[in-house]
Specification:
heterodimer; A: 248 residues; alpha/beta; 6-stranded mixed β-sheet; 9 helices; B: 405 residues; alpha+beta; two-stranded antiparallel ribbon
């Protein structure tokens, strides 16, 4: 196996919350590495700690104990503002509910992360937003607003927004959760394409058929990793899509 | 985030909520507008009172007999008999800063002409009285020193007296009126001066030679008061000191027991303007309250905006906005609303002041300082009332904000 650069390296990651008088241990010492070019799904039932995991991986939250290196930078000791900078430069987010700005065009939505970048002109911002929207196949919809788009198209805008700052890793949180099977497969096909182009993707889901479309699945239960398997046969989302019966 | 981006984001948020923004702005517009209008009204009244007083002669000095006890009873200043024509002569001779001086003896009573009668006041004065009081003749002529030497029964009357005693288009000059059974031949009519600041009719007067009124009409040997005018407004104060000194010498008094009181128009001016200042302060305070309410309106709408856009805030933080960026974003929005509202308010305030002047003739004066102050207050209002909601937005936890329903 060729030697690849680790993008994510976590060791003995713990996270505790205090709820009332009780201490809830959401993560109880999780360790794994994710390398450049991987497409990893994190599975788990609700309460397994996968949301907490993603918050920490996405630098939105800090671990109580343990170490988390993102692109060779130790994040445990960083300040809030430094974490914001890392999110801005190295991370792309895709959410279950898209989180697009209403009454705002696709271009303006996609260029949002670049607003918080120093020294990018508005022309360059637009240019990069258009490139990202081309990449997700929305070149015909640049000036549409979210309410003029289908759920799948809205999620594509969100993916374009995640790509616009050329991140080292894209985190997707149940990104297909609000979509029907057909649109889910379309989106997974898009993620697979991006992965083939070299993007590292971490995808949180609880649907096994979605997980099979990734290259590797890490399963969490009660704050611990219970399995970490590499899929020998990655399911091709586009083939699955072709197999679906046409509804209309 | 760069400044230009900040303004772009704030502008975008405002464009998306035009009506709401406008209504919020309205509070500020009304606040700033009314502050400016009230200041203009206050300043206008002050200036008009000032000019009315200086019309009365701002270099005028009035000397009245001081109060004194007569058998334990304090009597009104003017009713004393301590001043005589000697005081007038002393001032005439010795005061270098005084241009004109005239004694006044006065009496009120019924004036009769043919079948008409009218209550009026007669003033026995020197011809210089006209110059001191800045009065003009409309027709005829003023009596002269010769009339005084002869104690001639001639008079110059004001417009009110003319209107009430004579028929329309009747020429009063040459006619005779009777005041307390003494006939006076009218030789002149005064130009109308209207009411003074205190609501007194300045045209209800009869001016007659001093000696005629003092000796023939009243048979007294004192004078009620003395009026004088300083050579120039700039020496009015010196003139007051000078006259004080001269009169103290005549009456052998030393300041504590002066049997006279000297008032200059300067003093009156100060009193009058301090009164209007109080009025202005009151008006501005009330207008200021509406500005405060406008500010609270901004705070309120910013709170709603932060609440409504919680997910947007979460998203912005997730893609790299720092707390500072969010704070500035909402603060810029609040300041934008207040400053734009302030600018419109300035225009509204100026227009309102102009309209008031046009329709009510109430004088208004807009000072540059009032514009600058209200605009500055307005910007500060935006920062002050925008700060707390913006801070609240900046302190949101992105994880919570992203999942906010």
């Amino acid at each position: 196996m060729e030697e690849k650069k680790p993008i994510i390296r976590i060791q003995n990651l713990c996270k505790e919350f205090i709820v009332g008088d009780e201490v809830v241990r959401a993560l109880k010492g999780v360790s794994f590495d994710i390398f450049e070019g991987e497409f990893v799904t994190i599975m788990g039932t609700s309460g397994s700690g996968k949301s907490t995991m993603l918050n920490i991986l996405g630098c939105l939250d800090k671990p109580t104990k343990g170490s988390y290196e993102l692109d060779s930078v130790e994040t445990a000791s960083l300040s809030k503002d430094d974490l914001a900078k890392i999110r801005n430069n190295k991370i792309g987010f895709v959410f279950q509910s898209y989180n697009l700005l209403p009454r705002t065009t696709c271009i303006e939505n996609a260029e949002l992360p670049l607003f918080y970048h120093q020294g990018i002109s508005s022309a360059e911002r637009q240019q990069r937003a258009i490139e990202a929207l081309n990449l997700v196949g929305l070149q015909q919809r640049l000036l549409h607003t979210p309410n003029q788009l289908s759920g799948g198209q809205q999620q594509r805008v969100a993916i374009a927004r995640a790509l616009v700052n050329d991140p080292v890793v894209i985190f997707a949180d149940e990104a297909t959760g609000n979509l029907d099977t057909r649109m889910s497969y379309e989106i997974m096909g898009l993620f697979q394409d991006l992965n083939k182009q070299g993007k590292t993707i971490v995808f949180v889901t609880h649907e096994p058929d979605i997980a099979k479309m990734s290259k590797r699945t890490i399963t969490l239960r009660d704050g611990l990793v219970i399995s970490d398997e590499i899929h020998e046969h990655q399911v091709d989302a586009k083939e699955e899509l072709a197999k679906l019966p046409l509804t209309d | 985030m760069v400044f230009s981006n900040l303004t772009k984001v704030a502008w975008k948020a405002i464009i998306l909520n035009k009506l709401r923004t406008f209504l919020t702005m309205l509070g500020i517009i009304i606040g700033v507008g009314s502050v400016i209008t009230m200041l203009a009204i206050g300043e206008g009244s002050k200036q008009s009172i000032k000019s009315q007083i200086s019309q009365m002669g701002s270099n005028m000095i009035t000397i009245r007999a001081g109060s004194e006890r007569i058998g334990g009873v304090r009597v009104d200043d003017g009713s004393q008999r301590s001043m005589t024509i000697k005081d007038v002569e002393a001032i005439q001779k010795n005061a270098k800063n005084i241009e004109y001086v005239s004694p006044i003896v006065q009496s009120s009573g019924q004036t009769i002409h043919e079948s008409s009668n009218w209550p009026s006041s007669i003033y026995g004065v020197y011809p210089e009285y006209l110059s001191i009081k800045k009065m003009e003749l409309k027709s005829g002529s003023m009596f002269t020193e010769r009339h005084i030497n002869q104690s001639a029964k001639v008079a110059v009357i004001g417009q009110t007296v003319v209107d009430n005693l004579f028929k329309e288009n009747e020429n009063p000059i040459g006619q005779t009126i009777r005041f307390k059974n003494t006939p006076f031949q009218i030789i002149g009519v005064l130009e109308s001066k209207g009411e003074n600041t205190f609501g007194q009719d300045q045209d209800n007067v009869i001016l007659a030679p001093f000696s005629t009124v003092q000796k023939r009409l009243l048979s007294i040997n004192y004078v009620n008061s003395i009026v004088a005018s300083a050579k120039d407004e700039s020496v009015a104060e010196q003139a007051v000191d000078e006259v004080t000194e001269i009169l103290q010498k005549v009456h052998k008094s030393n300041g504590e027991n002066d049997p006279f009181r000297i008032m200059s128009m300067e003093e009156l001016l100060t009193t009058a303007s301090s009164t209007t200042d109080i009025l202005t302060t009151l008006l501005v305070a009330i207008a200021g309250i509406s500005l405060l309410i406008g500010g609270i309106g901004i705070m309120n709408i910013m709170y709603v905006s932060v609440k409504e856009r919680t997910r947007e805030i979460g998203l912005r933080m997730a893609v790299g906005a720092r707390s500072k960026d969010i704070l500035l974003q909402f603060l810029t929005e609040a300041i934008f609303i207040s400053v734009t509202g302030g600018l419109i308010g300035v225009v509204v305030g100026i227009s309102a002041a102009k309209i008031i002047t046009i329709f009510t003739q109430w004088p208004t004066i807009i000072t540059v300082s009032s514009l600058i102050i209200s605009f500055f207050v307005c910007a500060v209002t935006g920062i002050f009332f925008g700060w707390y909601p913006a801070k609240k937005a900046a302190n949101l936890d992105p994880i919570v904000a992203l999942r906010y329903e």
